[in-house]
Amino acid sequence: MAIPRAAKTQRRTRIQEEKEEQILEAALDVFSVSGFRGSTIDQIAEVAGMSKPNLLYYFRTKEAMHRALIDRVLDTWLEPLRAFDADGNPESEIRSYIRRKLEMARDFPRESRLFANEMLQGAPHVEDELKGPLKELVDEKAEVIRSWAKAGKIAKCDPYHLIFSIWSTTQHYADFDVQVRAVLGQEHAGAGRFEDAARFLEQLFIDGLKVKCVPNAS
Amino acid sequence: MAIPRAAKTQRRTRIQEEKEEQILEAALDVFSVSGFRGSTIDQIAEVAGMSKPNLLYYFRTKEAMHRALIDRVLDTWLEPLRAFDADGNPESEIRSYIRRKLEMARDFPRESRLFANEMLQGAPHVEDELKGPLKELVDEKAEVIRSWAKAGKIAKCDPYHLIFSIWSTTQHYADFDVQVRAVLGQEHAGAGRFEDAARFLEQLFIDGLKVKCVPNAS
DNA sequence: CGATAATTTGACCGATTGGTAAACATTACA
DNA sequence: TGTAATGTTTACCAATCGGTCAAATTATCG
């Protein structure tokens, strides 16, 4: 008798490890484009190169697959924000945060789209994570930014909307990739667009926050 | 015998006018949340308060409904960018463009999400509009911005990425509304968040582009 | 009013959906 | 090697999908 997912022995076999990886990879392909409702198990099965019942042997439902995928990706996705350091100096921290986020938009566009799809649908599967861990992390970093402003290191500004604007501008290059390519045209839609974006955004945020214009405080 | 959509008389009846409006309104509700693939005719029919065959009497296929919806919304959506005036002065033009886009995110979030969904899925239904009319419009406005930079009225910057960043930051408040609310928490997620966003974004872009720091040219 | 066109609906169709049952194949391990 | 656990597949299910059809209902207008 086959007991799906973690049988008698609580340890996962090599095959489980491999196949679950394979499935989540395919699921990311599909969910990130069509969203939860618009994706089908058959699609995922085809991309994964295995039969539908075989998928369902590892993940009992479509929801379970989506859930597992979100859980796995969420940590990675928030890493750049976690790396945001209170002890660093504002300019380099903001610069590297923008760069890191842009690199993720370039290297992991599917992950970005997965979350975007989830948000558009009202975050029915991750609302708790948003209100819990995410909010706490943002609150913490917002406090850092506020302290910088108080110390006169950057211009006074709403730290939450600053974070939102960095999120949105960078993720835009993953989520709206088709639009960006279409508008830039063939000449400028090459890989260099991420460099151009980085240059522009760094300039915008550094100057916009007057990071360097302020005399060294303390 | 009933000939669907524009019968013998080429003029549309009052009922046609009303029902089509009613259907597109419902379709906007549904498509904007679930995307094209994730939405069903039955859902739309239920929201519209009419039977499924009745919907299909006015729009022969799901695609036709989506198409009509996109067409209707696209014009409205690009209006703020069209209003972007070359003869105006940079500061007020950029300020009012940001305000207008934020107002649209506030007042027409479903329209914003409809497009966002379409982009995430690779724009299978609107790619031509992106490469054609949209690109031309952006090219034109980018030229305006470039001329401002050349005249020393604003800092030198990539006009395309400037436009992208205004799009993304403003639409973020519609597309990622759940996330914004979750992170801001109950205290700050009220209607005032749009005012806060406007203040922040205006400051960011005006200062970031050094609009006022530059001595009056010519 | 009467008649013709426009509108609406219930019943239905084949295809696809998420998911199951059980037979079959493979692996791990004593 | 044998055998029990694990992995895979074929066949299938009820529900839902997009869409059709013909009959019934309603609006329009002379």
TrEMBL record, chains A, B:
Q: Which GO terms describe its molecular function?
A: DNA-binding transcription factor activity; transcription cis-regulatory region binding
Q: In Gene Ontology terms, what is a biological process of this protein?
A: negative regulation of DNA-templated transcription
Task: Respond yes or no to whether keyword DNA-binding is given for this record.
Answer: yes
What's the protein here called? DNA-binding transcriptional regulator of the alternative pyrimidine degradation pathway
A Pfam family of the record is TetR_C_3
The lineage, from the top, is: Bacteria, Pseudomonadati, Pseudomonadota, Alphaproteobacteria, Hyphomicrobiales
Fetch the PROSITE patterns from UniProt: HTH_TETR_2
Where's DNA bound on this chain? 40-59
Spell out the PANTHER family in the cross-references.
HTH-TYPE TRANSCRIPTIONAL REGULATOR RUTR
Q: Which residues belong to any copy of the HTH tetR-type domain?
A: 17-77
Q: Does the keyword DNA-binding apply?
A: yes
Name the UniProt key words of this record, in alphabetical order.
DNA-binding
Q: Which SUPFAM superfamilies match?
A: Homeodomain-like, Tetracyclin repressor-like, C-terminal domain
Organism expressing this protein natively: Rhizobium mesoamericanum STM3625
